[in-house]
Design brief:
- The protein is globular and about 75 Å long.
- Helices cover about 70% and strands about 5% of the residues.
């Protein structure tokens, strides 16, 4: 069924509460493992219906944030989702307390119970109104960035459209585009600061109500991180500071030399080649047709998957007024359908975001056979391995998108991926500070951001831009507002994706087989055990950071 034919119906929360309560009580009273399993299955069917409606609503809202119907439905889910979380929490309690827990664990695996135990810690009925308010504040930020209509070259542009000009080969154009972009965030600085300050204080209040010292560990528990902790992440940041940051700084000098500029400015950082980063050939539709050919040649598994996506119109890629500016993949469970959402802008971003989100979609397509929602997706850092690795597995087909500039596109992709990591750990360290010091003022937060930037990205020169020099760059990063502590997942996953890339250079067949096995495993194991399935070294080991940094640097150095 095509996405336009997917039926949306607002869930009846009163009816769901009644059905849920009945099944949870039956699970608690179950007199056999079979009866307990039957209750779990009925509960999951209720959850699947709710999840399906929520996913359709979110996708259609993001497709047009001005759509009054779906704006109202999004508001409804902002309030309804925390109520649903509370019901699921009741189910989790009954599950872990079941006298048939061992039998159920044999059926569903230990990971479900690990997720359940963490979820129980993160919810109490008394935080329900706080969670509703948290959702509404996050929506305020999403609507703010979606509303951007920035005047440039005589036109009003959305943020993704403007970013295309910020990648221009003409230094004057990219400087003007970058200044226009940050002037939007500067003019909304007070509003963004207010939204974020309220979010930080609200999340801290929620943490205290749940018995946490701060939001930091609650943030980790919300993300169901069962096999690593803030100290391990701190050690990771330290290893990156020691082994990777100096390499990126060294390559920045090479980048400046290639661009023919005496010193890189902030508006130069994303442009690697003097003639500009290679841009894919053709429009959105032509890029999709080339992707179809690529996935049909890549493997039988990817051919089946991508043709399913095309036949059912499960991609929305064109940038337009009112469309949410990000890129994501969602899963509509009752239709067993992933959905890819992006904003093409005519730059290399288009190929990267398509292959990135296709990695997410391929994984959940391969995991859709799981009977329980918890296993359709793994934890987020593992999800990002699927997406970032797919970007690299697409390398042999870059000629389809870039023609004779294919190798230059590979260079820009790999170099950009390495350059990202210092920024990624900067975002993470900033968030740890924010939630460890929740009463800091917005001005103190911006000052701290600037200090952290200088640690991980000492080469940045903001060329007199006061908004950026005063520490405002993070205002553009939606994850900081909407998904606290998510961002380090990109760093963890990038280090893993580099390993798949290194292996694919000499043994593509086995590397891809391990990748498919990882996708097939879904969320049935925690992060570090999924690394074993994929035959990847842990990014928490210092030697892993040194290994991938050396390989990536050598390749860039020999091809630049």
């Amino acid at each position: 069924m095509k996405f336009s034919q997917f039926v949306y119906k607002r869930p009846d929360l009163t009816q769901i509460q009644s059905q849920f309560k009945e099944q949870v009580e039956q699970l608690e009273r179950a007199n056999s493992a079979e009866k307990a399993k039957e209750c779990v299955e009925k509960i999951n069917r209720i959850r699947e219906d709710f999840s399906t409606a929520h996913a359709i609503c979110m996708i259609r809202f993001c497709m047009n944030t001005k759509d009054e119907f779906y704006k109202k439905e999004k508001d409804y889910f902002d309030s309804a989702s925390p109520v649903m979380d509370g019901l699921v929490n009741d189910y989790y309690r009954a599950l872990v307390d079941s006298k048939f827990k061992d039998e159920l664990e044999n059926v569903y695996g230990k990971q479900l119970f690990s997720i359940a135990n963490l979820a129980i810690k993160t919810f109490k009925p008394e935080i329900l109104e706080d969670l509703i308010q948290e959702n509404k504040l996050s929506t305020q930020y999403a609507e703010l960035v979606s509303s951007a209509q920035i005047q440039f070259n005589g036109k009003k542009l959305t943020i993704p459209q403007l970013r295309a000009f910020a990648l221009s080969a003409d230094r004057t154009v990219r400087k003007q585009a970058s200044e226009a972009l940050y002037s939007f965030f500067s003019s909304n600085e007070e509003k963004s600061d207010e939204i974020y300050d309220r979010l930080v204080k609200l999340r801290t209040k929620i943490a205290h109500k749940l018995g946490y010292d701060s939001f930091v560990q609650l943030g980790y528990d919300r993300l169901t991180r069962s096999d690593y902790n803030p100290q391990m992440v701190k050690n990771l940041r330290q290893a990156i500071k020691e082994h990777l940051v100096p390499v990126v700084t060294k390559l920045r000098d090479k980048q400046a030399e290639q661009l023919g500029v005496g010193k890189l400015k902030y508006y130069d950082l994303s442009v690697i080649l003097r003639e500009g980063n290679p841009r894919p050939m053709g429009n959105e539709d032509e890029i999709v047709l080339r992707a179809k050919k690529m996935y049909e040649e890549m493997s039988n598994e990817t051919a089946e998957f991508f043709n399913f996506m095309l036949e059912n119109e499960l991609l929305d890629l064109k940038s337009r007024d009112g469309k949410y500016p990000g890129g994501f993949c969602n899963f509509v469970v009752n239709y067993k359908s992933p959905f890819i959402f992006a904003n093409f802008n005519g730059t290399e971003h288009d190929v990267e975001v398509l292959t990135h989100e296709a990695g997410h979609a391929f994984q959940v397509y391969r995991s859709r056979h799981f009977d329980i929602l918890e296993y359709h997706w793994p934890t987020l850092e593992a999800c990002e391995i699927h997406s970032m690795s797919m970007e690299f597995f697409a390398w042999p087909w870059m000629e389809y998108f870039y023609g004779e500039k294919a190798q230059k596109a590979q260079l820009v992709h790999l170099w950009g991926a390495l350059n990202f990591i210092p920024y990624g750990v900067c975002v993470d360290e900033f968030q740890h500070y924010v939630y460890e010091t929740p009463n800091a003022t917005p001005k103190e937060r911006r000052k701290l951001w600037r200090e952290i930037e200088k640690t991980y990205m000492p080469e940045i020169d903001y060329d007199g831009n006061k908004f950026l020099e005063n520490g405002g760059r993070w205002h553009q990063q939606g994850h900081i507002f909407e998904d606290p502590f998510y961002y380090i997942d990109y760093v963890l996953a990038q280090i893993c994706a580099f390993q798949f890339w290194i292996r694919s250079l000499t043994d593509k067949e086995n590397a891809f087989r391990d990748y498919v096995n990882l996708c097939d495993t879904g969320g049935s194991l925690p992060f570090t055990k999924l690394l074993n399935v994929a035959k990847l070294s842990s990014p928490f080991e210092e030697r892993t950071i040194k290994f991938v940094t050396e390989h990536v640097f050598n390749w860039i150095n020999s091809h630049a």
